[in-house]
Amino acid sequence: MLQVNLKFRRGDFQLQGELQAQNGISGIYGRSGSGKTTLLHLVCGLLKPDSGIIKLDDTVLYDSENNINIPGHRRSVGVVFQEARLLPHYSVRGNLNYGYRRQKTEKRQFEFHEVTELLQLENLLERSVRDLSGGEKQRVALGRALLSSPRLLLLDEPLASLDSMHKAQILPFLRRIREVSPLPMLYVSHDLAELLQLTDDLVIMEKGNIVARGKYMQVMHDSGVIDAVGDQNLTNVLAATCVKTDEALGLVRLKLDCPAEQACEILAPPRDIKEGGKVYVSLRPEDIALSKEKLTGTSIRNQLPGTVTGLTEYHKRALLRINIGVDVFVRVSMQTVREMQLQVGRPVICLIKAAAVRYLNS
Q1: 202 shares a domain with 224
Q2: What is the domain count for the chain?
Q3: Are residues 69 and 81 in the same domain?
Q4: For the whole model, what pTM was predicted?
Q5: DSSP letters along 169-216, please?
């Protein structure tokens, strides 16, 4: 487990905060200039805090009171940056071996063949890194970081420079690493939908402060946190499985990942997906309308029963959390709240046009 409690100032910018990161992925989200990258640089040793403590399991990496500051190269922390930063004069194999051979055999957490198989790099090993696509370079950078056998992995906007196609190549590998390894990971991104495809465990930052820490659906109960995230950035990201293509409607029928006893199906735009194929979709909170009962004589195909489980008022609007088998956010006016007498426990029908369901890079 990573434990951080520190203060850092550079010019007019000040960062201070406390966080703990367990095994798996913790997403760090904030707008540009909020301090996300600075936090990672402090953890890995590229920057030195002014005061505080950084502890990884039982190892103290930094402690201002006891004058401890372990150099970055001895912290057993792997870092993947936005740019792959590969060694251009080495092949893919050479880049992967760079970290692997520097680690003592008894301390290796990953074997070479395990990582190359996990990231599907076997057919690239003898190629020059100059000849790789952006997605391939990031897979090599990720493999090199893993083969250094880190106790903590930091990912600083690793997909920011990639197009949608290459993002779609990398995200499944990141989920696979999360599933097969107990390695704690801090993943920085300014793209909330990208983060939510990997984890719902978030650290929200604003102007150098950690303003919220916890599950996405739980931390948005405060108007200040909503402002820090940005009202326009709020979204719903849902994992789903393709049931079939409804030929009559020309739409795809998706089963949302929800408890087995609930049939959470939703119709989405046509897409070339095999039955049983896994996808991630997004829904904007403002694209979900509410009704007290199911409607007839309407073109809206998705009418999902749900229950209000949370209500946060902000700027004369309300952000509702509604459980339709999975939790989703719905944005309405306070006038709608009053007219429909919306409150926690109230049953509602969520009305969603199929065209509002957007496929993500997955």
Answers
A1: yes
A2: 2
A3: yes
A4: 0.89
A5: HHHHHHHHHHHH---EEEEEES-HHHHHTT-SEEEEEETTEEEEEEEH
